[in-house]
Amino acid sequence: MRLLFDQNLSRRLPDRLADVFPESLHVSVLGLSNATDLEVWSVAKEQGFTIITKDSDFNELQLLQGFPPYVIWVGGGTARQAISRNFSGRSVQVSLTCPALAMVYLLLVEYGPR
Q: pTM of this prediction?
């Protein structure tokens, strides 16, 4: 799985997860730090990324545009806390990505933002 970390998440996460998700990137590496959500969405779709974000707008895009890309929305608070809350399956998007959420949750508990 290729993860694309949105601008609202630490630029260090792809490096911390490189041993498990070696092809993952932060949007800044692709020159998308100031890109619109739709531009990030398009790149993720074209390049086969799953978007990791705290931005709820991506959930709305997913409802309008469908899959791919998949979106893992980590909501408010710290990424670790938000993923564990979302892991219970509050929405269709979350339930469709539960295997990914479980993996990312476990990795963030181990390597996550500190």
A: 0.69
Least Cα distance to 103 among 3, 7, 15 occurs for: 3
The closest of 1, 25, 23 to 13, measured between CA atoms, is 25
The answer to whether 102 and 2 have CB atoms below 8 angstroms apart is no
Q: On the CB side of 86, how many CA atoms lie within 13 Å of its CA?
A: 32
Read off the tokens for 83: 């993923």
Q: Tell me the three state secondary structure of residue 60.
A: helix
Select from 11, 14, 61 the least CA-distant residue to 36. Answer: 61
Count up the domains in the chain and report the number. Answer: 1
CA trace torsion 31, 37, 40, 42 (10° rounding): -140
pLDDT tens, residue by residue, 51-89: 988 887 887 888 888 888 888 877 554 444 444 444 444
Strand runs (DSSP E) across the chain, as ranges?
A: 2-5, 25-26, 49-53, 71-73
